[in-house]
Every structure is written in C-alpha cells, then in structure tokens.
Amino acid sequence: MSNLLLLLILLPVAAALVCYFVRSSAVRNLTVVATGAVLTLASVGLLAQGAFEPIAVGSILGISSDFLVTVLDFALLAVIFFYGLKHKSLLIQGFTLAQAVLLAWFEFISLKHEAVPALMGDQLTLVMVLVISVIGSLICIFAIPYMKEHEEHLHLKKSRQPRFFFFLVLFLGAMNGLVLSNNILWMYFFFEVTTLCSFMLIGHDATEIATKNSVRALWMNALGGLAFVIGMMLVYSETGTLNIAAILAAGPQGALMVTGVGFLCLAGFTKAAQVPFQSWLLGAMVAPTPVSALLHSSTMVKAGVFVVLRFAPAYVDTFLSTGVAVCGAFTFLACAALGIGQSNGKKILAYSTVANLGLIICCAGINTPLALTAAIMLILFHAVSKSLLFLCVGTIEQAIGSRDIEDMRGLYAKLPRTALITIIGILTMMLPPFGVLLGKWMAIEASADSNIFIVIMLAMGSAMMVVYLARWAGSMMGSREEGAKSESQALLIRLPLFIICLAAVALSVASPWIYNSLLAPWLGSAPFTVGFGSLESAHGTFVVVPLFLVLGLGLLYAVKAASGYRKTRIMPPYLGGANSSVDGTYVGPMNGDVPFSAGNMYLGELFAEGKLTPICNALAVALIVLMLGGAL
Amino acid sequence: MDTLILVIIGLVAGPILGGLIAGLDRRVTAWFQSRQGPPIMQAFYDVAKLLGKEKMVVNQWQILCAWVYLIAAATSVALFFAQGDLLLIFFVQAVGAVFLVMGAMAAKSPYSQVGAQRELMQILAYEPVLILVFVGFYLVTGSFSIEAVWSQEMPLLAKMPLLYLALGYALTIKLRKSPFDFSTSHHGHQELVKGVLTEYSGPYLALIEIAHWYETILVLGLCALFWHTNVAWMAVLLVATYMLEILVDNTMARMTWRWMLKRVWVLGMGMSVVNLIWLYAG
Fold first, then answer.
1. What's the rounded Cα separation, in Å, for the pair A387 and A299?
2. Considering only alpha carbons, which residue of chain B is nearest residue A595?
3. A369 lies in the same domain as A258
C-alpha cells in the first residue's frame, strides 16, 4: 500500500528529473508517456484497494520524512523569495518572508513534535488521485506534440521543453502529495510546490506579458500560502494536533479554530482563483494550452477547492460555513456574468472554470451530505469536460491561429473532427444527462434548504452559463463542402481528445455507480438511493440511465436522419434578396455582390469586463471579510 | 406500470392538445380582430402539409437540431407525466431550447443568427425565474418531485400567488408571445422570415411546430400544478391564464431585449423573491 502511495508522489518527481537532465526528446517523450501509464495504473490500483486509515511514512534514506519536509519547506520559500527579488516584487518578498518567519516560529518554538501519520486516503482523496493521475497524465501526453509545434512557431534556438516537462510532471506528484496528506505540514509543503510549479509554467514563454502574469500569480498564491500558515497555527493552537483526520473528527472547536479553518479556506480561495483572486487564473492564459488545461482541470485550482472541501467537517453548521457558501455562490454568479462579455475562447473557459469552482465551494459551504456529493461530482466531471475543452481550443488555435470564437464560426467545415469533439465537450458542460449538469442539479436542490441569497445567485448564474456555452457550440456548426479535405491530427493529439471525450460521456452514464461505490461510504448519511439507474433522494430524482437511453437513442435517430442530408436539397440561406453566386454575399444595388456577416451579442453594456470586475472584486472582498470576521 | 401508461398518455395527448390549443389560439385572436379565423383543426392541416413538402436544408446540423428539439420537448412532457423531478424536467426542456438556438446558428444566415442571439436572451430572462418557482415548490412540498404536490391539502396558488404571476411572465417568454416574441420576429410583415425559424422549412419546420405543441402542454401543465385539488378550478385557472396570454399577445407591441431583461429580472425575480421569503419565513 505505502509503496503505491510513494509511487504516486515520487515517480513524477523522478520522471521530472529525467525530463530535465536527459536532453533527448525521445527519452523525454517516452518518460512522459510511461509515467502517465504507470500513474494511471497506480491510481486505479489505489482505487481498487479502497479507502485506508492514516499511515506513517517513516524515514527516507535514513532521514526522518517529517524533517525532510521541513527542510524542503524552507528551501522552497527561499526559492520563491529569490524569484520575488528577481522580479522586484515587494508583495512576493513580503508574503514569503512572513510565511518563513511564522513557520520558523511555529516549527521551532510552539510545535510539540509528535508522530503524525503522514498520509491518508478517504474516498475524497481517491477521487482526487484519480482525476490528477488520469486526466493530468493525458494532458502531459497531449503536450508532447503540442509543445513541439509550439516551439516551431516560436523559432527557439534552444528547446525549453526539458524545463517545461520538468514542472508539468512534477505538478502531478505535488498534487498527489497534497490530496494524500494527513499531516497538515505536509499539505502545506505540497500546496507551496504547486504554487511554484504554476508560477514557472505560466511564465514559461518568458515574454513580457507571461512574466508579468506569472508574477501576479505568484504573489496571489503567496498570499494564499500566508493564509495557510496562519490558519494552520490557529487550528493547532486550539486542537493541539497536526493530524488532519483528528482535526476533522473533532469538528468545529471554538472560535479560534474556526477562524483558523477560515484562513485555510481563504488559502483555498486564492488557489481556486475565486473572486477577487480570479485575475491570476485569467492571466495564466498566456501559458501554452496544456498548462491551462492542467491548471484548470486536474491541478492547482482543484487543490484550492480540495482544501475547502477537505476541512468541511471542521466548520459544519458554523457562520463560516454560510460565509463560504455565499462567497462561492457569488463567484459563480460573478464569473458566469463576466463570461457573457467574452469572445476569447480561452477566457470563456477560464471564467466558466472559476464559476464552477465557485459552485463547488458553495456546495462545500452548504455542507450537507447532498451538497458535498454535488461538490465531488462537480470536481470529477468538471475536470473531464474542462480538460477536453482546453485541449480542443489548443488544437484549434494551432490550426487556425486564433482563439476567438468569432473566428471559429463554421469551424466544422475546416476541422470536422476537432469541431465535433469541442461541441460534444461543450454540451457535456451544460446539458443533462451529463455529469456537470448532474452536479449542478444536486447543488441547486441542496441550496434550496440553505439560504435565499444562495438560491438566487445559483439560479441566475446557471442561466448565464447556458448563454455563452450554447452560443459557442452553435457558432462552430456549419456547412461542409462535399469531398472537402479530411482533417489530419497527430496520434498523440487525437488519442487524448478521443479518450477524454469518451470518458466524459461514459462516466456520466456510470454516475449512479460512481456515487454508490465511491461517495456514499464517504458521507455519514447517504443522501441518495440508487434504483433503475436513477439517483433518488428526499429532494427529488435524477433518472440518469433512462434519460441516457431516451435522449441517446433520440440523438442516434437524429444523427441518422441528418446523415442522409445529401439526399435533401441543399439551399443557400435566406438573405432577404437574391443570393449571389459567391457564398456569404447577396445581390445588392447595381447588381454588385454585397457581403454580410453576423456576430454574437456580447451585451457589452451589461456585462463588460472592465465595468463589472471592480464591482465584483469589491463585493467579494467584503464577503470574505464578513466570512472571516463572522467566524470569530 | 401506472407511470408508463401516464407517460404514453402524455406523449400521445401532448401534441393533440397542443395542436388544438394552437388552433383555438388563432380563432380567439381572429375574434379579437373581428375576423372569422381558420378552423380549429388548421394547425394540424398546416403541419400535415409541411410534412408532405420537399426536404430543403442549409446543412445537416439543422436536421439534427430539429429532431433533438422535438425529442427533448417530448421527453420533458413524458417526465412531467411520470411525476418526475421539476428541476430535471426543466433541464431536459433546456436541451431542446439550446438545440433550437444551435440549429439556427448553424445556418450562415443573418436572420436566423440574430434570431438565435435573441432566443438566448429569452433563455437568460426566463431560466432564473423558472428555477426560483421550482424552489418555491420545494419550500411548500418539501421535494422537487411533482409527486409531492398531490399530497398537499391546499392549492399551491394560495401559498405562491406571486410565484404564479412570475411563472406567467416567464411562460409568455417561453412561448414567444408578444411582447416577448422577438426571437421569432417577422420581417417585412410576412411570415416567411421568423428569426430562429428562418432557415427551417417543410418537414423540419413541422417537427419544430410539434415540439412547440409539446412545450405548450408542459407550460400549461406547470400552471395546472397550482390548483391540483380540484379539476374544475384547475381548468378555470388554465383557461384564464391562456386567455390572458392571448390577450397580452394581441394587445402588446413587440419590445426590445433590453426592456425584457430589465423587466423580467426586476419584476419577475422581484415577485419570486418576495414570495420565497414568505415561504422561508413560514
């Protein structure tokens, strides 16, 4: 068992070192693919063994592992401080220094060192390990052909791929470590490693804008790290233990501890890019697409929601819980609204990620078994669908040279396969019977019990998300010339796209069983019963499998009907006059061809990013202050 | 077994009733305008005629989207008759709405593109109100499933009057009736150009028409839930509501989407929220 755990954490570290030091692309590619395969198998193996009690790690090479983590912690802070100096960022320097001082005081003065089992695995952990290891690996594999082409575009003299894959693969190990930690100090260490990795990856292209955005990401996450240290110290001062399992079992213990957990949640907020911290994730868009895919689906932001969700039992039924729910719901609404004004595909995805993370955090705050189920369902299915969409946007961007959805109009004509997969990906994000919608359904049903403000925010946000996703999917559809050239894709691009697309659909079908075998044992009282492939609760019923059958068969019939379209008459669209022989024009005055075009409505007057962002940020700061202050 | 029979009744009776209502709608409208109007069965004749026409499309997406729209609309009605989960019914209905929009966007036609954008605005307006109405159902009955409504002693209208008004508001938009019919707005006062429907013709337009009948039944079904205790009063409520819809349809001019969003969000959501607060407090 513990071998499997060490494999999940240490193999990526070893593979990262190989990628960095062996400067041969063949070795690197093989390492990445092999690591991905082993990680996938290991995570499935861990799942097969099921949840386990906290276990001790002991010593590595004769050095106590706790001591090792402490040393690495300070080394890491030193590295981050160095980058703060290098980029002349006082914020990074200040936050890192404060962390180092507090941590030193905590470790050497106030902490009574006792043996804490370092790793644990409940069902939440198992789901996270699965998401990180499988989705993360697929993204790393996708990155192999992607980065090759990316560097060809940039005309680099010396390849920077060793460095890139070092941090990409290391990220997976850090994430696995984070979700498996039972010692809160270990969790903090891995939390900081993900901060460093994301900083390095965002700034990878080393352009001015990339550096600027990576520095912003670093200072915001350093703030999160500081909040983590403060939270950790407050929690320790009240409970006297670093053992997360013991902290959770004890439940909310007095104002000081709940405030401490509040700070831990704040750390989670920064990492999950909740408003007002969303700007670092949007800035992270400058990084190569595999990085965005990784940050948005299986790592980084998921670390944020994981922390909030992990400590949910420690603040259940407190004011903090309501505060977390309101903050999450507000982020959901704000980012759903901000998404409407965007035409940049990656930005739309970014806002939709932040919105969905807000929903997950809102569910953690509602803190009922139903809501927690919704949160994990959303984590799982959002990771699958969002990674797919990012990889699609990356593929499209390399093919057409733009990530603007207006430029993707009628993309089906040029890239039928990619367009189709993207459309499927978008549909799995917003429509039943797919998993993300299942999670949203659970979230809304769970919120009906809690608080009217939360319900209203979820209702509005949910409608807004439909608008920008539907509009995008629709505009990619279009006519394809008969006998047009078929689309070519590299195998390592096609395979991840295909696998993730299939997973998005297949996992959704399996959701009742995923719930039964994984989530129900995790929750004290299971909110759903499974019957006839449906999830039934006291609140209502989601008929998963029957709906899949009906809508699936219906879709098959529709596809069959549509595939015979060559037999019907293909007509040019109506243009209010005579169509000219040239596509996209009509016969106008003087018998000239007049071109026409149509664009999406982005509702700039209501949802302009520049206008809305400051208001949302201010409100979010107020809500967070309220959340932390009220916890005292 | 009972559920299955109910589902079949819903699937069969849905379009028949929907078509009749469409016919009645035209008769009453004609009466308002001192015309005689077409026979009540006209809606069926129209659809039959459309089904017999030659198939013409701009591309295959339209065929796909028209079919999915119909299937989703029928499924949502089936779920309604199976006493399913209100939120789920609503989300299945949204599948149809989204596919209608996507089908309109698939054609490279400015008219259907504009129609699709406006339809999205309509979705943006009615969706939150509908969700809040369903939350109201939950607060009264303790469940989102329709089954729970039948165990109530009192008609729901007594506890959620403002939510009923908000629902009526949302449904006017959903049924694309004036003043909220801008996603299917006409062009040059002829029925040839109709926003999202511009590029649909012949059998595919017929599919959309049938799907619309299903939607009408779903909408009226939701209204019927507000007076489940007595069939007669339920009928009175439905007739009154639909007559009011026709009256509004014929007396109001079409408005812009800005007007709609502001009105619906402020007035529709406002009424919903006030009513929900009563329920939370109670």
1. 11
2. B110
3. no
B104–chain A Cβ distance below 8 A for any pair:
yes
* B2-32 and B202-224 helices, crossing angle to 10°: 100
Q: Which of residues 265-284 of A touch B (CB under 8 A)?
A: none
Domain boundary among A283, A299, A315: A315
Beta bridge partners of B57: A570
Whether B63 and B208 have beta carbons less than 8 Å apart is answered as: no
| DSSP 3-state of B139 | helix
Task: For residue A300, give its domain range.
Answer: 1-57+65-315
pLDDT of residue A523: 82
* pTM (2 d.p.): 0.95
Q: Do the chains contact at A452 and B269, CB–CB below 8 Å?
A: no
How close is the nearest chain A Cα to the Cα of B32, in Å? Answer: 31
Query: A603-610: long-range contacts at Cβ-Cβ below 8 A with a sequence spacing of 24 or more?
Result: A603/A340, A603/A341, A604/A341, A606/A340, A606/B261, A607/A337, A607/A338, A607/A340, A607/A341, A608/A341, A609/A338, A609/A341, A609/A342
pLDDT along chain A (632 residues), means of 10: 84 94 91 94 92 83 84 95 95 96 92 85 92 94 92 86 94 94 94 95 92 95 96 92 92 89 95 92 91 91 94 93 95 94 91 95 94 94 94 92 90 92 95 93 92 93 93 90 82 91 94 89 85 88 93 94 84 79 80 83 84 92 90 68
CB contact under 8 A, B64 and A606: no
In a domain, A590, yes or no: no
Between CA A536 and CA B77 the distance in angstroms is: 20
- pLDDT(B192) > 70: no
| Separation between Cα atoms, residue A381 and residue A390, nearest integer Å | 14
Residue A578 belongs to some domain of the structure = no
Establish if A571 belongs to a structural domain: no
| Full 3-state SS string of B241-277 | HHHHHHHHHHHCCCCCHHHHHHHHHHHHHHHHHHHHH
Is the peptide bond preceding residue A54 cis, with omega within 30 degrees of 0? no
Residue type at B11 in one-letter notation: L
As a whole number of angstroms, the distance between CA B122 and CA B259 comes to 11
Residues A296 and A353 in one domain: no
- Chain A closest CA to B34's CA: distance in Å? 32
Q: Which amino acid is at A525?
A: S
From chain B, the residues in CB contact with A448 under 8 A are 135, 138-139, 144
- pLDDT of residue B190 exceeding 60, the answer is no
The answer to whether residues A456 and A372 belong to one domain is yes
Is A190 in the same domain as A289? yes
Residue carrying the six token digits 């719901």: A329
- Counting other chains too, the contacts that A111-117 makes at CB distance below 8 Å and 24 or more residues apart are A111/A236, A111/A242, A112/A240, A113/A66, A114/A241, A114/A242, A115/A56, A116/A66, A116/A182, A116/A183, A116/A241, A116/A242, A116/A243, A117/A53, A117/A54, A117/A55, A117/A56, A117/A182, A117/A183, A117/A243, A117/A245
Interface contact flag, A458 B131, Cβ < 8 Å: yes
Domain boundary among A254, A282, A315: A315
Q: How many domains does chain A have?
A: 2
- Asked if A270 and A339 sit in the same domain, the reply is no
From B113, B138, B261, residue closest to A598, measured CB to CB: B113
Closest CA relative to residue B151, chosen from B161, B165, B137: B137
| Interchain contact, A562 vs B101, CB within 8 Å | no
Omega of the bond leading into B179 within 30 degrees of 0 (cis):
yes
B85 strand-pairing partners: B145
Residue with token string 């078994």: A369
Count the alpha carbons within 13 Å of A416 in the hemisphere toward its beta carbon.
Answer: 12
- Give percent of chain B with pLDDT exceeding 90: 67
Residue A576 in any domain: the answer is no
Residues A33 and A143 both lie in one domain: yes
